[in-house]
């Protein structure tokens, strides 16, 4: 790999040839040393230079993945607009082009369904490099051109952050006014379509909705999904990434079975909740939605939309009451739940730490989660693995069954800081910086830090800009 100081322009394809940061001066270390000393010494200046190279490269990735108002996650592998990717990517855009960040959100909501749902993928332009595309979802034509399922609702958190951090407050206010009713409609959809029995927590009906598609948490509920006689298909993902890193064929058969069953009722949200053979309480979706509701409430107050505040407060209270049922004190972790069997799911995954991001964990749960996280980190070189490194089904390179995802590291770090676990947060942040220094890719092997999955990956670049870059420069 070329030494980072010598790289002026950065190649955008092969993860193994992208710039490294080297050295031990991570943003977190920079922040801490600068707070202690006042002066910036030579070593720190050098570290800043390295960080700047990484930030420049990250901006370049977003720019190259910009297909006109929306950012694809990665060329070839993911050629459309993905929901939670876009919300996270907008945070990255906001660090150097606020107008473009708002555009990302506007474009995502341009495909909002009449019932309020915001799809997990929007098919703005045709592509042949991804399966299943619009023809399988039955949404080749407008007004749909999007999938009939959703993804973790990060958007309100993004809109809140974008507004708070905006330099151009006038533009920000216009955009918030425009987006607020759409966000509210989506959150109302979650309540009515995904919690029709008013349990306080929302259901996830497809592993793709969880954003953590082949998480070991879904093994059990997926076993109860029968494989229908679906049309033969060819997976496109395996032409981009080695099959040993991707979900299995058995999982894909079930993913597709669910799509065809949902399509058969035209994705009617009133029916899906009751007919889906896969229905779980996903920790990621519920944690993100809780936090997003806090943001929505903040936005409502800022806009003077006070009449909706009691409704949001009721949702928040419902979450708080029900969330405690997802905590497993025996293993000091939150667990997802199979709604169809009523059982907590065995797997301990990185989603189990997301109640920290939500701020819904109690202080004593937070303390136990921090201890669990420390134990996990003692088993791997870099954190945070997406699956418990002590478990038999830990696979360091298979997608959501072991690898590290920068977006999850950001969310958990944000939560650790909120609960006062600064040293642990710093460890995760430093690890992330070192990992990203070896390439801005989809995910990383926690045992050796090797970059893997898709290269030049948008949300990883966005985390570099919105999290690591900001953290160092705000010192
Ligand atoms: O594997 C796939 O085909 C898609 C299916 O939605 O899912 C992966 O890529 C998306 C785009 O980056 C992410 O949004 C998901 O979280 C991640 O699991």
UniProtKB/TrEMBL annotation:
Keywords, A to Z, come to: Glycosidase, Hydrolase
A Pfam family reported for this protein in Swiss-Prot or TrEMBL: MGH1-like_GH
Tell me if Calcium is a UniProt keyword of this record: no
Gene Ontology terms describing biological process: oligosaccharide metabolic process; protein N-linked glycosylation
Q: InterPro entries in the record, alphabetically? A: 6-hairpin_glycosidase_sf (IPR008928), 6hp_glycosidase-like_sf (IPR012341), Glycoside_hydrolase_63 (IPR004888), MGH1-like_GH (IPR054491)
Family affiliation: Belongs to the glycosyl hydrolase 63 family.
Q: What name is this protein filed under?
A: Mannosylglycerate hydrolase MGH1-like glycoside hydrolase domain-containing protein
């Amino acid at each position: 790999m070329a030494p980072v100081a010598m790289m002026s322009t950065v190649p955008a394809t092969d993860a193994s040839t992208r710039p490294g940061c080297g050295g031990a001066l991570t943003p977190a270390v920079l922040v801490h040393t600068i707070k202690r000393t006042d002066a910036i010494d030579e070593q720190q200046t050098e570290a800043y230079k390295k960080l700047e190279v990484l930030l420049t490269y990250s901006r370049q990735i977003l720019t190259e993945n910009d297909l006109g108002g929306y950012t694809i996650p990665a060329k070839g592998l993911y050629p459309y607009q993905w929901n939670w990717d876009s919300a996270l990517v907008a945070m990255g855009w906001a660090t150097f082009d606020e107008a473009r960040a708002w555009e990302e959100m506007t474009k995502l909501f341009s495909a909002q369904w009449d019932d309020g749902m915001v799809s997990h993928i929007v098919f703005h332009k045709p592509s042949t490099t991804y399966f299943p595309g619009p023809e399988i979802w039955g949404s080749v034509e407008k007004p749909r051109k999007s999938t009939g399922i959703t993804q973790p609702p990060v958007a309100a958190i993004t809109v809140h952050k974008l507004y708070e951090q905006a330099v151009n407050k006038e533009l920000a206010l216009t955009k918030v006014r425009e987006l607020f009713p759409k966000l509210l409609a989506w959150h109302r959809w979650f309540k009515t379509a995904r919690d029709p029995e008013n349990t306080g927590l929302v259901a996830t009906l497809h592993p793709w909705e969880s954003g953590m598609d082949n998480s070991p948490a879904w093994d059990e509920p997926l076993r109860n999904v029968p494989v229908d006689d679906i049309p033969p298909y060819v997976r496109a993902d395996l032409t981009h990434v080695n099959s040993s890193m991707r979900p299995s064929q058995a999982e894909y058969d079930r993913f597709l079975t669910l799509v065809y069953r949902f399509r058969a009722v035209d994705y009617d949200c009133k029916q899906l909740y009751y007919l889906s053979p896969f229905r779980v309480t996903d920790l990621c979706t519920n944690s993100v939605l809780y936090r997003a509701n806090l943001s929505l409430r903040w936005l409502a107050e800022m806009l003077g939309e006070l009449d909706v505040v009691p409704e949001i407060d009721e949702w928040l209270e419902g979450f708080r009451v029900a969330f405690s049922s997802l905590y497993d004190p025996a293993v000091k972790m939150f667990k997802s739940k199979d709604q169809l069997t009523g059982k907590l799911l065995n797997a301990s995954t990185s989603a189990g730490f997301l109640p920290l991001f939500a701020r819904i964990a109690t202080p004593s749960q937070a303390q136990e989660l921090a201890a669990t996280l420390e134990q996990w980190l003692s088993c791997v070189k870099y954190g945070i693995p997406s699956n418990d490194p002590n478990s038999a089904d830990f696979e360091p390179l298979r997608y959501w069954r072991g690898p590290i995802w920068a977006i999850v590291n950001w969310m958990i770090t944000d939560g650790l800081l909120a609960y006062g676990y600064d040293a642990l947060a710093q460890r995760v942040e430093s690890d992330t910086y070192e990992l990203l220094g070896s390439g801005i890719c989809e995910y990383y092997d926690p045992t050796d830090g090797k970059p893997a999955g898709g290269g030049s990956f948008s949300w990883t670049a966005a985390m570099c800009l919105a999290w690591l870059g900001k953290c160092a420069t705000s010192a």
